[in-house]
Every structure is written in C-alpha cells, then in structure tokens.
Amino acid sequence: MLLGVTFEELLWLTAAIIAAGMATGILAGLFGIGGGAVIIPVLYEAFRFLDVPEDVRMQLCIGTSLAIIVPTTIRSYLAHQASGLVIERVMRLWSVPAVVGVAIGATAAAFAPGAIFKVIFSFIACLIAVRLLFGNEKWRIADDLPGRAAMTAYGFVVGLLSSLMGVSGGSMATVILTLYGKSIHSAIATSAGLGVPITLAGTIGYMLAGLPHQGSLPIFSVGFVSLIGFGIMAPISGFVASYGAHLAHRIPRRGLEIAFGLFLLIASARFLVSALS
C-alpha cells in the first residue's frame, strides 16, 4: 500500500485519469471546452482515495483541473485559429474582464468552504447539461452581439464561473455566442481562445490561494494545484485536443451532446449529494 491506497486501486485510478485525459482533449476540440467537467469528478475520487481533507479537496480538484486544461486550450485554440473562425472582437472584449472574474473566484477559494464549490459545479453543470440535451441551435436572444457594457459583463461572468467551477469557460461562452446568432463553429473556436487566458490566470490564482493550506495538501502540490495530476493528464489531453478540433467538422454532434449532457447530470447529482450530506 502507498499512502493508504492499494496497488489495485492505484491502477484503477491511473487508468481513470488517463481515460479522462483523453476525453478532455477530445471535448476541448469538439465542443470548445476545456474538459474540466470530466476532470474534476475523476480527480475528486482520486483525492478521496488519497485521504485529502474534505475542506480543501474540491479546491484542489478545481485548481488542478485549470492547470491540466492550459495546454489543451492552447492546442485547441491554435487548431481552430488556423480555420479562421475565431471572432477576434469577442476575444478583445472578453479577455480582460474574464481574467478579473477568474481572480475573484481564485481569491474565494482561499476562504470559502469546499461545499460551496460543489454546489456551484452542480448548478452550472446541470444548466449546461440541459442546454446540451434540450437546446436548439436556432434559439436566439438577438441576431448580433450586444454593446460593450453587456459584453464586458458576459466576459466577467464567464471568467468568474469558470474559476469557481474549474473549467475553461468554453461551454458557457459557446451558449452565449450561439444565442446571439453566431454559428456553432465560430462559437466553439472563439470559446477555445477565451479558455487560454482563463486557465492561465486560474492556475496561478489557485496556486497562490492554496499556499496558506499547504500543510493539508498532498505531496507535490503547489497551492491548490497537484503536480502529479497535472503531470499525468495534461500531456494526454493536450496531445489529443487537435484531433477533437478536426472531428468537430466531420462527425454528427447530437449523439455526443446527449452523452456528455447525461454525464454532466450524473456528476452534478454526485457533487450535490456530497455537498448536502
């Protein structure tokens, strides 16, 4: 046994982390998301096996997820940028307010209890799941993007929720852009780009936020970022991200949307029960 974990459990955890890394990369390219909704449930179980204290476990999952997503979002963005589908105006308007939102979310991680992050993850993941399962690409708020003030607010909210949930913000950004008349492919490409500043800022923020809790965290952690989790999942997810981007234009999306939506509902229920118990 190692740190109270049997060799068989370690094998299963390693296999799950590798599989989640591959799923993360595919999802990043296919849906313009970082895959944090897949990473966090896997990491949560891994850190539970390793007896990471409950009051910092969710924050460690979120910080590690953001770090893992960094190379994935970069590769995904570069692949989409080559297609010329990134909406540069959105990138300019959203990047700074998104980073501000991330900073506030990371600051909250240093003080807020883990149960709050579980509830937030459950709520946002459930909304995304409903959109995936029942949404219609023809839904519209308007035929074009709103003015600077509203766009700044959207960018801030995406950054804040991304930081609290441990995701790149791709799902939320994609929904917003499609509701304002942008094509799904342009929305995905732009969302992938926005994930780069969000995940970079989020990783740094969670490292700093976790430093006061360093004594409660497992070895090879820098604040709320596990270097072991990052070292296993990041190379895998980063490598397959470009394949997901190519698949986005070649295969039917509906079946994948349904499967991912159902997964999010299950993960939401799991964290909500844990937070309320």
Outline the structure in words.
By secondary structure, the chain is mainly alpha-helical. It has one domain. The protein is 75% helix and 1% strand. The protein contains ten helices and two strands. The protein has helices at residues 7-31, 36-49, 54-81, 88-109, 114-134, 148-165, 170-179, 184-210, 227-247, 254-276, and strands spanning 221-222, 225-226. The chain has a two-stranded antiparallel sheet with strand order 1-2. Strand 1 (221-222) and strand 2 (225-226) form a beta hairpin. It starts with 6 loop residues before the first helix and ends with a helix. The mean pLDDT is 81. Its main location: membrane. The chain crosses the membrane at residues 12-44, 56-74, 94-111, 116-134, 154-180, 187-207, 219-243, 255-273. It is found in: Cell membrane; Membrane. It is a multi-pass membrane protein. InterPro entries: TM_pro_TauE-like (IPR002781).
